[in-house]
Write a structure and sequence with these properties.
This protein has about 450 residues and is mainly alpha-helical. The chain folds into 2 domains: about 170 residues, no CATH class; about 230 residues, Orthogonal Bundle (hpI Integrase, Chain A), CATH 1.10.443.10. It contains 14 helices and 8 strands. Strand 1 and strand 2 form a beta hairpin. The protein is globular. About 10% of the residues have low confidence.
Amino acid sequence: MKYTLKLAVSYTDTASGNKYQLPAVYTRSGILISHLRYLAWYSEKSDSWREKSVFSVRLLIDYIESTSGFKKTTALLKNFTEALVTGTIDYQSSNDPLGLFWKPRDLTVANNILFHITHYTDFLALQEGYDLSHINPFREASSWEERMNWCAYYHKQANVFLNHLSSYSKAQEAATRKRLVYTPIQLMISNDKAERFPEDKIEGLIHEGFIVKGIPDYRSQAMTMLLNYGGLRKSEIFHIFTSDITIHPNHEEEALVRVYHPVYGRSPDPKYKNRAEYLKSETTYKPRNKYRITERLYSGWKNPLMTSKEGYFEVIFNPTHKAKEFLSIWVKYLKYQRVEPDNFHPYAFTNDRGEPDTLKNFQRRHKRAVERIGLECKKEFGTTEHGHRHAYGYRARKLGLTQVELQKAMHHKSPNSCLIYIKPTSEDIRTEMRTSEK
């Protein structure tokens, strides 16, 4: 049974006057205001992050409402953690005494939930007046603000709150610090599945898959080239302005593509300080990472590594000659297919009405194109949009790029982040061994 709801609310910070559109946790005592303040404080976080935080807090509240008899927060939180991992259903009786009917969650998912709850209670423990709001025993029917403060107090004083650990060594280290509540140790898995788009199928996808009634879909061809040969994340292509794609000054037949931060990147009009101000002043749109995740125009932003103080990074095509091919397709798109909008916007890729193209539209077109060339569109086959980025990283590794070079090519803040894209498969290792033995 669910004891909470998620509401969409308008929240105004009384100190700054800033207004936010936020998801809120609604309980039988009303909206959990402290959580709203928490989301507003971390306003730079993505909409997806906020949704996960709301979801996690709702789970904790639903669990507390469903249980009784816990006199200590320690026992309650420990049992909550176990319920996340093992579920709450008694399969022998096909019933759930708590009425929650939770299925077992993957350890990674459970740890993510615990992270969000811990992060929220850390915030509560730093707030003014916090020391006066945790005096009621946890088991009493106090308000949810008081109960959440009690969880924060427990975390701060005992240093034993939910421990979201991922390795045995860290679990051992935490045990020496008297951690009491943590999820079971996760299995260390090196995924052997090739989640990259098949190298021998990419040309067929671009030049045969994206054909509609005998006419090339230059828009989707250009977008897919940015993913596979440019290494972009699928969300990043929807932040590109038309003015961000130009001819390379040092290579006249090649494209120069820059991806700017959707809020703080340099404005194409110098009279505005950044892109957010430009969009607000010249259009009816806003940066696309500032829409709610449920809105059509939303596109995420992963905070990649920037290479310029103007707030952008440049796309590095691999193979490099694909920059020339991309420029040719981009010009054809502009000349023959891009629809000029009635309601002006600067975004590079439009739909058939001239509005900014959306992630869902592109995913549908990509899926149809994949199926046209006889493939099944599935993550485990590497044939979804994200498989292109894996293909880019793997191709770069095969060229012999160092880890730091891969970091810059794939725009990661950490040089270790690229490792997930360049892992060799078991067959790769066998082939290398056979070659060495000859």
